[in-house]
Amino acid sequence: MDKETKKQVMFERMKEKKKEVKIVRRIVFALVVIVLLVVGIGGYSAYNYVTSALQPYDDTNDDPIAVSIPIGSGLDSIAQTLEDNNVIRDARIFKYYVKFNNESDFQAGEYTLTQSMTLDELVESLKTGRIYREPVFTVNVPEGLTLEQIADVIEARTSHSAEDFLNLVTSDEFVQQAMTDFPNLLTSEIQGENVRYALEGYLYPATYPFYEENPSLQSIIYTMLQGTLDNVQPFRALLDEQEKSVHWLLTFASLLEEEATAKTDRKTIASVFYNRMDAGMPLQTDPTVLYALGEHKDRVLYSDLEVDNPYNTYKNQGLPPGPIAGSGRTSIEAVMDPSTSSYFYFLADKEGTNHFAETYDEHLANIQQYLR
């Protein structure tokens, strides 16, 4: 092979190498671009995922979610419990957030959480053992109110009218749905023939926080029903033992609530009612007469005691057909744990102090001494 031929061969080889280098460069460039795109997309997706996980699960959903944190639970199990109950989006992100903020000392307990709570609110709740949120507004339902009176409270504190509240809470369809949703609280007894309002006495008196501007009437009513369920649950075993029902308990407790004054000994009044029922005496409590009349009066007249109504305990023995008002925890406890006494009569003086008597003559003497 002569020199010219060798040069030509070398030249051709160099051209082929240059082509190969260009191809390799293009491949490398393409790979780099692909890697960068993958990293960029992955990083962007990861950023969005983490950002999303740091937000409330659903900031429009304030429905209560019952979450149980057992004693001895560590951060891992707490985070997983919150994720399993759809309170947070990602247990790992929650753990990193807690560790980054150096939070600890979470408390075991039964929590009612919502999907709209922020991570800070959840952390504070778990640290303090209570729900830590700033409510949009609160509704205070005092003890001893009837459904009609609660309706006025709802109208004053929410955008709902008293009429709409009463229409819903007395609707057969709504009551039936509530019975389905609260089977351990609402039984067929609330639909007894002589019961005026099925849900009378079942809306627990308390101060309720609400975390949205316009909660539905159903959610408001269900919140109060849950309050009653929570407060009668501790007495369920004792009720079963005594073969008594929740309806019986709330009916009895409502009488104590309406008879109560600031200084009233509910447990002793409960003993009076027990003693009268055991002796076959009518309860003869004025609040049942007023409920039968359907009006408030400062003074019950003798003529009022003759009203022919199933709720009138002067005319009918035993408890009325259903509660006559909402009862607080103190009255409920008094029914289940009354004092032991021989009293059959009582009255409250002008200062609200109660005076008890074993005989009618003693009672008449108390009337003469404290009310004349």
From TrEMBL:
Bilayer topology reads: Single-pass membrane protein
Q: Which keywords does this Swiss-Prot/TrEMBL entry list?
A: Cell membrane, Cell wall biogenesis/degradation, Lyase, Membrane, Transmembrane, Transmembrane helix
This enzyme catalyses: a peptidoglycan chain = a peptidoglycan chain with N-acetyl-1,6-anhydromuramyl-[peptide] at the reducing end + a peptidoglycan chain with N-acetylglucosamine at the non-reducing end
Q: Gene3D superfamilies per the record? A: Classic Zinc Finger, Endolytic murein transglycosylase
EC category name: lyase
- Tell me the compartments it is located in: Cell membrane
Per the UniProt record, the site (Important for catalytic activity) maps to E259
Ranges annotated as spanning the membrane: 23-47
The protein's superkingdom reads Bacteria
* Predominant localisation class: membrane
Which EC number(s) are documented for this chain?
4.2.2.29
What's this protein's function? Functions as a peptidoglycan terminase that cleaves nascent peptidoglycan strands endolytically to terminate their elongation.
NCBIfam families the UniProt entry points to: endolytic transglycosylase MltG
For this protein, the record's HAMAP family field holds: MltG
Q: Which family is this protein grouped under?
A: Belongs to the transglycosylase MltG family.
What is the name attached to this protein's record?
Answer: Endolytic murein transglycosylase
Q: Which organism is it from?
A: Chryseomicrobium palamuruense
**What gene name is given for the protein in this entry?**
mltG
